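Case study 2.
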Amino acid sequence: MTFEVGDKVIYPNHGLGIVERIEDKTILGTTCGFYHLRIVANDTTVLVPVSNVDGVGLRRAISDEDVERLFGLLGDGKIDNHQNWKGRFKDNSDKMRSGSIYEVADVLKSLTFLAKSKSLSFREKRMLDRAKFLIISEVSEVMRETAAAIEGKVDSALERCFTAKARTAARAKVPVKAAARPVAAVAAAPARRAARAS
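Prediction:
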């Protein structure tokens, strides 16, 4: 994937950046091209080798259609539920490094859901804040809306997600009870027949 000066790009775990220039640099006798990115959140400059764009997961900012898909995903009621802290932290770290906003949305959903039932470790709390920041900053740039407005939409989508999950969990419990009743009734029938006969 190649970029031009002025392109808005996403640098995994850093957020939105703007390609300010592209230049060749010679390092240890090897000349290669670099993108100079200005990271919008903190106004720092990052150099990314042109040859390593795929390796670091640099990508273009999402489109308007992708924003719709993102909010659909945030509100769909499907949440990864790792009980094991180590496994969960590793999976979430991999997702955060992937550069995919949809993977970051998964992290946001699962950690927000988890935070409702228990207090997160410092590292997970920091990851949750980072995931939320990355989504809000990219979507607000794409939609040209304030971060506060986008945060409200993200929170609403997450509430829809948790409501949908609760509904699904409630529905999953109902058939078990319904199935249990006929078994009990069948077991009781011979006892009632025996009582009537005597």
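The helical segments are 53-56, 64-74, 85-98, 101-117, 122-143, 147-197.
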